[in-house]
Amino acid sequence: MTTVFIIGLFLAFFLDGSISQMFSGVFYSYPNSMVPYLTMLWLILTLYFVDFKKLHIELWAAIIGFLFDMYYTGILGIYLFAFPLVVYICRKIYNALPQNFLSGFLVYFLGITILVGLGYFANDFIGLTNTSVSVFLVNILAPTLAINLIFFLIFYFPIDSLYMSRRR
Amino acid sequence: MQKFFSNRKLVIVIVCLIIAFGMMTASVSLRNRRNTPFIVQQFGNDIVGFADRIVATPMNGIHGGFVSIQNLLNTYQENQQLKSKVDQLAQTQARDQVLTQENTQLKRQLNIGNTLTGYQKVNAAVITRTPSSWASQIIINKGSSAGVQKNMPVVAGPGLIGTVVEVNKTNSKVVLISNTAENSNRFAIQILTSSSVVNGIVSSYDSSSNSIVMGNITSKANIKVGDKVTTSGLGGVIPKGIYVGQVSQVTSDDYGLTKKVNIKPAADLNDIEAVTVAVKG
């Protein structure tokens, strides 16, 4: 189970970059910007389907967040803390809700919003962006949410059955 | 106060926040000052970059397949257009050769070695792109072991696309000219007008019109739409004569004292597969 999780985690991590590169004309064309967060999707879906007590998922989120910072952006300290925080929040909320597809969808929606928002405030703080809040909400947050929820719809059931088959 | 600090979670959150902001500011300032990142970071990036190739190579292959099919559909039209340009090109090339020869001869006579135009090329493939709305960055598969250094210009197809911002042993990060952060894109360029040359610096990127902005031009020269823009080779590691793009708009600035020129980049910044790093010789 752990092996599947780790392989999937790194696969999702690299796919984030590859998909951005392949579809850069579609994803980053002015004025919208859609960022795929498959790594986050993998972490949260694992949270939904796997008994997380055996798996230190926040720790893995921090490790992959650190790699994300180091390899993709070169600015350390943003996703290193944002990934585990989002995973923690999502876990708390998901456990308080009835566990089904719809609540999973809503929690994921919330998680991506927090993640993108944290990224925005961190980049704003260190002066790497001067995007206004309204532009951020309309042209960055909304398209990013859209693309990630589509990915959620596509991958929810395949990953569910993948973990189900490994459990037996 | 006692109760405040006994709350363990709050303390953890605050400590994490302080560490996070400390790390962010430290890495931004280190990135501006150092030529290469720390050895640990470099080593980590090299390993991750190596693993990334296992995923990125097939993905880029699939993408390449789609692009080829698309190209195949456009072939006839393109062929017609290109045919008309080929005759011209042969002429220009011949003239270019003669001029280069003449140039080297004259240089030899005057005992001049390398001037600002001399550079060698290092070819590299794009591994991946940073999945982020804030940084237009790509990661290429050549690093310091191939002679790449920080701030070197990167060319794709017809023109300049960006500069190297971080160098590891076997891969490096390239910031595209479409990056809108305040601390990028400050390279020296020149506009070749019909009568004279206008020097200047890139001041920002205008994402709504997809063009580079060169501000604060006080020159009286008559800059026209369609004038060619190249790097000027002044100040730093960027060699002279790398094609950037064409002037697309000339306006005066807000106070009417200086001119502002919008430049359409020659390269398509959203479809980059292979790049060339110009290493100054």
List the helices and strands and how they pair.
The complex is a heterodimer of chains A (168) and B (281).
Chain A: H1 2-22, H2 24-27, H3 38-49, H4 57-73, H5 79-96, H6 101-125, H7 133-167
Helix pairs in contact in A: 1-3, 3-5, 3-7, 4-5, 5-6, 6-7
Chain B: H1 2-6, H2 8-33, H3 39-110, E1 119-129, E2 137-140, E3 153-156, E4 159-167, E5 172-176, E6 188-192, E7 197-206, E8 211-217, E9 228-232, E10 240-252, E11 259-265, E12 274-280
Antiparallel strand pairs in B: 1-2, 1-12, 2-5, 3-4, 3-12, 4-5, 6-7, 6-9, 7-8, 8-11, 9-10, 10-11
Which properties best describe this structure?
heterodimer; A: 168 residues; mainly alpha; 7 helices; 0% strand; globular; B: 281 residues; Thrombin, subunit H; six-stranded antiparallel barrel; 37% helix
Number of beta strands of chain A: 0
Q: Which class of secondary structure composition applies to the elements of chain B?
A: alpha+beta
Structural class of chain A: mainly alpha
Reading the helices and strands of chain A in chain order gives HHHHHHH
Strand content of chain A: under 5%
Give me the oligomer status.
heterodimer
Sheet with the most strands, sense and barrel status of chain A: none
Uncertain regions spanning at least 5 consecutive residues of chain A:
none
Give unreliable regions of chain B as ranges. none
What's the average pLDDT of chain B? 83
Portion in beta strands of chain B: 25-35%
Specify the overall morphology of chain B.
Answer: globular
CATH class of the domain at 188-265 in chain B: Mainly Beta
Number of alpha- plus pi-helical segments of chain B: 3
Q: How far is the N terminus from the C terminus of chain A?
A: 10 Å
Give me the side-by-side strand order of the main sheet of chain B. 1-2-5-4-3-12
Helix content bin of chain B: 25-40%
Mean pLDDT of chain A: 87
The helix tally of chain A amounts to 7
Helix content of chain A: over 70%
Q: End-to-end span of chain B in angstroms?
A: 64 Å
